[in-house]
Write a structure and sequence with these properties.
Blueprint (H helix, E strand, L loop, with lengths): L1 H21 L10 E5 L5 E4 L3 E4 L2 E8 L2 E4 L8 E8 L3 E5 L5 E5 L1
Antiparallel strand pairs: 1-2, 1-8, 2-3, 3-4, 4-5, 5-6, 6-7, 7-8
């Protein structure tokens, strides 16, 4: 009886680990799209795989309310913090602590 219990526990743990390893982060559909800053100087395009700021495309990933991009020649990641996000408006805090408002 003990061997069945131990075998069951091992199989259950293996299933949980496999599920966690195979889980893909779903892209945020509200975030994706074309955005323009309120002053129409900065353009932003976000797809499920790329973050394009003023025609400079970079790969990105989301972690909580922060967008991390890879930036060549700088630190491994550049952080953009999402302050507000809805269907029509996006407020981003840039790495130099400047908040920029975008709209669709």
């Amino acid at each position: 009886m003990k061997t069945y219990t131990l075998t069951f526990i091992r199989v259950a743990c293996a299933c949980m680990l496999l599920t966690a390893a195979c889980h893909k982060n779903e892209p945020n559909k509200k975030l994706q799209g074309n955005w323009k800053s309120k002053d129409s100087i900065t353009s932003l395009k976000i797809t499920d795989k790329q973050f394009t700021l003023d025609n400079e495309a970079e790969d990105y990933f989301l972690k909580g309310d922060t967008i991390f991009t890879s930036f060549e020649g700088n630190l491994p990641y550049t952080k953009f913090v999402i302050q507000k996000l809805d269907e029509k408006q996006l407020n981003l805090l840039f790495p130099d602590s400047v908040a920029v408002e975008f709209s669709r």
